[in-house]
Write a structure and sequence with these properties.
The protein is of the alpha/beta class. The protein has helices at 22-39, 60-70, 88-101, 118-125, 134-146, 177-186, 201-211, 234-252, 262-266, 272-281, 290-304, 318-331, and strands at residues 7-12, 43-46, 75-82, 106-111, 169-174, 189-193, 222-230, 285-288, 308-312. The chain is built from 12 helices and 9 strands.
C-alpha cells in the first residue's frame, strides 16, 4: 500500500513532560486533537492511566467529550477504557451519551491491563478488578450497545439510556492473541499494540482475521498501533530518541517520573546494564525523518495486513510532538 492511501489515526496518553504541569499536558492534548482534525487524521483515541506522574488522563470518557466538542470531523474515542474496573452497563451509558452528543463520531476501545500499579488498580475498582470476567464483560457490553442481549440475560428487559439510532464503534485493544481471539469471537474491531509487543503482530493479526465471526461488526477490521516520532532532521530525531530511551529505562526500573527532556537524557551516564535495557526496548519505537519512519511504518502495516495505523507519539516536548504529527500528515498525503 502506498503512503497516500493509508488511514492514519492518533493515540494520546496525555504525557506530562518534565517542567510542565498536568494542565499543560491536557492543553497540549486539546491542541493536538484540533491539529489532527485539520490535518485529516481518521480518529483520535485517549488512553486511560492511573497513579502515573508521566501520564495525566485517568478518565478518557471526560476527555472525549472535551475533544469532540472542539473538533469537527475527527472520530474521538478511548484507547482504551480498562473494562475490568467498571460495570459494562455504566460504560455503555457513558458512551451512548457521547454518541447522542456527537453522532457517528465516537469510538469505544476496550482493554484489560491495569493502566497503573496493582494497589492503585484496587483503589480504582473499589476492590480487585474483574480481570477474570473480562470476556463476559465485553460480551455483555457489546450486547447492551447493539440491543442484542439474550432473552435470558437479567438485563435484557431493562432500558439502557439514551436510546439513539447510532452506536459507537467498538474496538478491542491488545498486545497478544488473547485480545485478538476475543475480538474475533465477538465480531469486534481489533487494534494490535505494536508499541507494547513488537515481536508477534503478524501472527496475532492473522489469527484475528482467520477466526473472525460476524457479531457486533459484519466483517473484520484491524489497526496496528505504532510508537512514532518524526523529526525534520536525523540530529533532532537522535535527540528525541535519547529522551525515549530514558523514559523506557524509567519504566524498566519502575520509576514513576514525568517524561524526561532532551537535556536530562543527554546528561545521563548509563551503566552497561542500562544500555542493554535501552537496546532491548528500541524495537518498540520508530524514530527518524519522514522518509525513514514512513518506510518502517508501511512495512509493519503490510506485515500485519492492518487496515489502519494508529500513531502514539510521546516526545520530549509538546512542540516536537505536534511537529511530528504534522510531518506524518504531510508524508502520508
Amino acid at each position: 500500500m502506498t503512503a497516500s492511501r493509508v488511514r492514519l489515526s492518533l493515540l494520546d496518553q496525555t504525557p506530562v513532560i518534565e517542567g510542565h504541569s498536568v494542565a499543560d499536558a491536557m492543553a497540549a492534548t486539546v491542541e493536538l486533537a484540533q491539529a489532527a482534525d485539520d490535518l485529516g487524521y481518521q480518529r483520535y483515541w485517549c488512553a486511560e492511566h492511573h497513579g502515573s506522574h508521566g501520564l495525566a488522563n485517568p478518565a478518557p470518557e471526560i476527555m472525549i467529550a472535551r475533544l469532540a466538542a472542539t473538533t469537527k470531523r475527527l472520530r474521538i474515542g478511548s484507547g482504551g477504557v480498562m473494562l475490568p474496573y467498571y460495570s459494562p452497563w455504566k460504560v455503555a451509558e457513558q458512551f451512548m451519551t457521547l454518541e447522542a452528543l456527537f453522532p457517528g463520531r465516537i469510538d469505544l476501545g476496550l482493554g484489560r491491563a491495569p493502566g497503573g500499579d496493582q494497589r492503585t488498580a484496587r483503589a480504582v475498582a473499589g476492590g480487585i478488578p474483574a480481570g477474570d470476567r473480562f470476556p463476559e464483560q465485553v460480551q455483555e457490553l457489546a450486547g447492551l450497545l447493539s440491543g442484542s442481549l439474550p432473552a435470558a440475560h437479567p438485563y435484557s428487559e431493562l432500558l439502557l439510556q439514551p436510546q439513539v439510532p447510532t452506536r459507537p464503534e467498538l474496538w478491542m485493544l491488545g498486545s497478544s492473541d488473547f485480545g485478538a481471539q476475543l475480538a474475533a469471537q465477538l465480531g469486534i474491531r481489533f487494534c494490535f499494540a505494536h508499541f507494547i509487543n513488537a515481536d508477534h503482530g503478524q501472527q496475532v493479526m492473522q489469527m484475528y482475521r482467520q477466526h473472525f465471526q460476524a457479531g457486533y461488526e459484519a466483517s473484520p477490521y484491524s489497526a496496528v498501533a505504532l510508537f512514532v516520532i518524526c523529526a525534520d532532521t536525523e540530529a533532532e530525531a537522535a535527540d528525541l530518541s535519547a529522551a525515549v530511551d530514558l523514559r523506557r529505562l524509567y519504566q524498566a526500573y519502575g520509576l514513576n517520573k514525568p517524561i524526561p527532556s532532551v537535556a536530562t537524557a543527554r546528561a545521563m551516564d548509563y551503566s552497561p546494564r542500562d544500555l542493554a535495557i535501552i537496546a532491548s526496548e528500541r524495537g518498540r519505537s520508530i524514530v527518524g525523518t519522514p522518509e525513514q519512519v514512513v518506510e518502517r511504518m508501511l512495512s509493519i502495516q503490510e506485515a500485519c495486513a492492518a487496515d489502519e495505523i494508529v500513531v502514539l507519539t510521546v516526545a520530549a516536548s509538546y512542540a516536537a510532538r505536534l511537529r511530528s504529527t504534522r510531518l506524518l500528515a504531510e508524508a502520508f498525503g
